[in-house]
Structures are given as C-alpha cells and as structure tokens.
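Marked as duplicate of an earlier ticket. Keeping the data here for the record.
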Amino acid sequence: MNILPSTLVDTATRLAVTAHEGQKRKEGGVPYIMHPVMVALILAKHDFSDVVIAAALTHDVPEDTKVTLEELREALGDEVADIVASVTNDDSLSWKDKKLKYIESVRAGSEGAKAVATADKIHNAQSLIRNHERAGTKVWAHFNTGRDEKIWFEDAMLAMLQETWQHPLVDEYAVLVARMNALD
C-alpha cells in the first residue's frame, strides 16, 4: 500500500489549505478546510481516483475563495477542474434557481462529479444532524432559506442521484436525508 500522497492530491491539498485559510464553517466555527478534507476522506474510503480526491479537496475553492476555476484548472488539470465546475454553484442566480442549476449540472456531470457532490452532501448532512442534536431548531438559521427549502433541496438532490447513479454513497446519503426530514 502506498501511503505517500500523489503529487496531484498533494498539490490539491496545498491549494485548498491556502485558499481556505482563515475561513470557518457556518456552524461551530470549525476551520473550513476540515470540510473538503472530510469529503476527500469519504471518497478515499470508497477507492476513488486521485483525480476525484483532488476535486473533493478543492470543490469549494472557486465558489468560496479568490482562486478562480481557471487558476484551479492550471494547477490541477482539466479533469479536476471539470469535476469542480460541475459542483460549483452559480451565485448570480436566485437561491432556488441556483439549486436547480446545481442539480442539473451534477446530473449531466461525470461519475466523479456525482461522487464529489454526494460526498459533499453526506458530510454536510452529518454536520447538520450533529449540530441539530446540540442546538435544536436554531440550526436552521444557518441556512439562507430555512428548514423547508433546505429539505426540499436535499430531497431533490437525492432523487436525481437515485435516478442517475448507483453507488453505496447514494444509499448512505438516503439514510441521512431521511434523518434530516425527521428533524423539527
């Protein structure tokens, strides 16, 4: 077993750490970099390629930092950048239109895009459920649209994944979506 990271994963890790420096997660104030690392670990556990893991590490970089998709493409290549582009929200749209476009972008994306999107949603759902256990209904205040719209998005995302991709990650996400639906 090779325990040394690939050059691609190492470069992606360094890029993500630098780009997300000083950022915190909405809930709990945890350093933001922990989120892409957890997404990458979920995918590594399922033996996804270094390209997919590098995309997981950098999936929020163009959306949440000053690093552009073009800069990411230059640093990590077309395959990684294409996956990241598929899972990047278009913040010029209204919340609902942005989420609908995201779902369709992932639907049209590669297996790698579906994997990164699903692992991202899994980690976000785990965080939401854990934070709900601590803070109760106050957790919904972290979302721009509140509980009902957040649940609508998770249900719609899950439905699309169940239609287009057969993988154990989709089943894991389905369990978490059911748990989110049961939260008050």
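See parent ticket for discussion. DSSP finds ten helices and no strands in the chain.
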